[in-house]
Design goal:
CATH architecture: 3-Layer(aba) Sandwich
Strand content: 5-15%
Shape: globular
CATH class: Alpha Beta
Largest sheet: 7 strands, mixed
Length: 245
Amino acid sequence: MNKIDEFFAEVSQNIERLGNDHDLQGLGRILLREMTRYKYSYNFTWMGRPMIQLPQDVIAMQEIIWKARPDLIVETGVAHGGSIIFYASMLELLGGEGRVVGVDIDIRPHNRVEIENHPMSKRISLVEGSSIDTQVIQKVRELAVNSKKVLVILDSNHTHEHVLQELELYSPLVTQGSYVVVFDTLIEDIPDEFFDDRPWGKGNNPKTAAQEFLKTNDRFEIDRAISDKLLITVAPEGYLRCIKD
């Protein structure tokens, strides 16, 4: 075994130990809960645009993109556009003609202007409308028609019903070795008081949707190593790796 292989073998052992350390994993959930009180994820930008993600999950997405090398990334939920700009910048580093499709029911004019004027806009297509609307799905499929490797990120309406529909509609686009990433599965693990003004909460959220989806779909499995090594993530059990074409 060469030195590089030795290093990554040690990393794998570290991650396995982290996953088996229930006290430490519990501390991670407590820290995440307390950070959420302060909207911690709102504090960060990518190339000037707010991205509303935890730095840990940004690193995880970078690793996934570099390894899977998608030529199309589809994200539902655009907000300020920081995430799609991040994905576009990763595709820029990879080279080639890779593109990002951002889908949102309401792309606010001031955000659209900033996204369309950004240096990474050349790799971005915006689709306005509900992510589960028939016409929106058709548009995304048209944009994906020549893509060989597709990565999907779900980060829009977080209700069980909506996310389950997204999983059923978008997962067929995902290719073997890539992922569908279901963000905000943490909703199941923190108190309902955080979501008093939202239509989602315990028993009705992205994690429950992902769990139901996996019961009947054998193309995907949870990549637990990602959550185990991050310790702090908005997507526990939400990194779903595609294992079959």
